[in-house]
Amino acid sequence: xxxxxxxTVSAPTAVLIAGPTASGKSSLAVKLAEMVDGVIINADSMQxxxxxxxxxxxPTPEEMxxxxxxxxxxxxxxxRYSVGRWLDDAVEVIADVRSKGQCPILxxxxxxxxxxxxxxxxxxxxxxxxxxxxxxxxxxxxGRPEALYTILSVRDPDMAVRLEPRDGxxxxxxxxxxxxxxxxxxxxxxxEDLRHDPVVAAGATKLVxxxxxxxxxxxxxARFDQMVELGGVAEAVRLHDMGLSPDLPAMKAIGxxxxxxxxxxxxxFDEAIRLCKRDTRRYAKRQMTWLRNQMGSWxxxxxxxxxxxxxxxxxxGSWTRV
Length: 322
Description:
Blueprint: E1 14-18, H1 25-36, E2 38-42, H2 61-64, E3 69-70, H3 83-99, E4 103-108, H4 111-119, H5 129-142, H6 145-155, H7 157-160, H8 168-181, H9 185-190, E5 204-209, H10 213-229, H11 232-241, H12 256-263, H13 269-294, E6 300-301, H14 304-311
């Protein structure tokens, strides 16, 4: 029995719940955690940050209920956090949860996090901040990613031919790795050395919660209005006023740029909200494409009720594993 008297059932080694933003993943995770004495672990690349609970749609204390939640709101927006660092943290938390006889339930919309958990991650070292700052400065000085691409083409032609000349982010990453390690990113990607072995590959129950697109879009519209009512503009302004580099992952959160621009009088309120909702819809569409292409073998449900019914198959000894 759980603390609140709910009957529990025999749990798998882990439960993975993926889905696009505004699909209802967080509330589903709480319901499943109640069934298996679970601890919910965040697998969303924006909900890790503190000072942005509203714009990242982090579950509120009321939504979390009595279920323990881990890896939420514990990283400063000023940090250059990565999938590798998240995997390190997740491995530690999963081990801790299992040591207490509980079931880790990982929930989020960041596909790369799930990929790292289930397939492992190449052991590419973290790039020192001064190396990153140098190449970021070069990109800003030269003004166009094609100029960095020319440099990469000379220094690492095999890697360069795999990239688009306008893809500044990936070109920057390739140059950083080359400078920091003396090895091409291509070599690191081809290495069999993993940062961690696949963590939840065996015995884990995996599912995708992906309602119809029109339902997702309607939820996005309503939820963003609610974010604004809860103080989303003030949160965006605080983050913007921290003076952080715009290339930091946290500063790319949807809403910061447009809402801060409204606050400065550079954009009408209605236009700022329209752009935020548009960007969120585009983000959800990209997530749905990823889920379809990368997680097509995972059982997928249109709504939480169907997902719970599928989950209850455990009682009959028929977990769906992939």
